[in-house]
Amino acid sequence: LFVSSMVGKDRIIFATKEDHETPSSAELVADDPDDPYEEQGLILPNGDINWNCPCLGGMASGPCGEQFKSAFSCFHYSTEEIKGSDCVDQFRAMQECMQKYPDLYPQEDENDEKSSKDLEAASMEASAAKEEKASS
């Protein structure tokens, strides 16, 4: 017996022992050029983010999918001089969510963690410099 479930699109498939013993009769279907989720890369022709792109490695789904989408969208559409410097809160929320699921989102080793913290610190410094510049 096999049961498959997808969030938002529940689909239950029952397979008998006999189903598993007979060879598959599945046929490959030619790619549909009108399929909006066909592997078009990360950015669709209209400029939207292709959340189904395999290049995202499934990050857009799962328990932190909404936080990932929020952070990535913010970065993608950011018009700040230092791109994404206005997205610190979204990335922090995503990181906090991922820390709750270490089996799904393994943490970086110490060297990677240091560079991640350096990046966050640089982003925060850029935000502070921007605020300082705006107030002068």
UniProtKB/TrEMBL annotation:
Region Disordered, residue ranges = 102-136
Compartments in which it is found:
Mitochondrion intermembrane space
| Presence of the UniProt keyword Disulfide bond in the record | yes
Which BP terms does GO give this entry? mitochondrial respiratory chain complex assembly; protein import into mitochondrial intermembrane space
| Primary subcellular site in the record, as a coarse category | mitochondrion
Q: Name one GO cellular component term.
A: mitochondrial intermembrane space
User: According to its UniProt record, what is one Pfam family this protein matches?
Assistant: CHCH
Name the domain of life: Eukaryota
Keywords for this entry? Disulfide bond, Mitochondrion, Oxidoreductase, Protein transport, Redox-active center, Translocation, Transport
Q: Which PANTHER family match?
A: COILED-COIL-HELIX-COILED-COIL-HELIX DOMAIN CONTAINING 4
Query: Which protein, by its recorded name, is this?
Result: MIA40 protein
Lineage of source species: Eukaryota, Metazoa, Chordata, Craniata, Vertebrata
